[in-house]
Design goal:
56 residues, elongated, 3 helices, mainly alpha
Length: 56
């Protein structure tokens, strides 16, 4: 397991994954703009942001 973590760190895997996750989050939030305001839209926005903000 240590070797895997070293490879991920060596190749900046965490930073690259986080950057990609941020791009997809922004894209998802942009797509949600077309939905009418309401409870379901708010839940989707919150869920989308929470997935990015979670810690490992």
């Amino acid at each position: 397991m240590v070797a895997v973590l070293e490879i991920i760190e060596k190749h900046h895997g965490y930073e690259k994954a986080l950057s990609l996750a941020r791009r997809y989050t922004q894209k998802a939030l942009k797509e949600l703009r077309v939905l009418p305001d309401g409870t379901y839209k708010a839940i989707l926005k919150e869920l989308t942001q929470d997935l990015l903000d979670r810690t490992m």
